Amino acid sequence: MTETTILFLRACLALLAMPIYLLSFLGIWKPFCRKVFFPFVLEKISGIHERKTKKQKQELFHNLSDFSRPSGELKLLEIGTGCGTNFQFYPPGCKVTCTDVNPNFQQGLLRSMSKNQHIHYEGFLVAAGEDLYQVPSGSVDAVICTFVLCSVQDVNGTLKEVLRVLRPGGAFYFLEHVVADHSSWKYFWQQIFYPTWKLVFDGCCLTREIWKNLEQAKFSEMNLKHISIALPWTPIQPHVMGYAVK
């Protein structure tokens, strides 16, 4: 009965989003989404999102400076930088290289950089998390990834690249939404929204068990905790956050 209900409600949601499904079928939606829709929507909702996650991000990034080199230099690599909402939490003087698979965020990124001149902007690389070939092995002190592992093509491949580019003793910082408990109403609604949500929001998956990928990756130390951040009117709530040391 439940599976039938889920399929029925998925179909109802798909009917509501039929123009988007049609554009996707015609090959128009994906380029439009990446170039116009997603960067616009992400920047508009970032203010609300920042208020909801500010406390958690302050807690998450409070010890970033601990991973500085003996010289005091701190090189950060951010995967899926988007509009640069994490910049405000980075230590003064750190050097940041930004990457994103979508080059159309750069306008919002530049606005964020102008507001956060306490950090040094090293450059922007158009690259997927699974293929950071432009970044030399062992070259960065910390890798940052927030609300990105939900939409990468290969979570394990991305974590493998993270371990490659980190220097020994470097850290990977993460904050990600994950699948809800399978016995909960949240999970029920995540299953209903899943196909349409993934299409509309450029590959964002609602039902990934990202903590399992992190625990299975070859980090020497893992600091991970499950938290709840309520984002109103969305099927996103359970999260994991923490950092892992190479």
UniProtKB/TrEMBL annotation:
Coiled coil regions, renumbered to chain: none
Lineage: superkingdom: Eukaryota
Entry keyword ATP-binding: no
Residues passing through the membrane, by range: 7-29
InterPro entries cross-referenced by the UniProt entry: Methyltransf_11, SAM-dependent_MTases_sf, Thiol_S-MT
Protein name: MET7A protein
Organism: Rhynochetos jubatus
Signal peptide: none
GO MF annotation list: S-adenosylmethionine-dependent methyltransferase activity
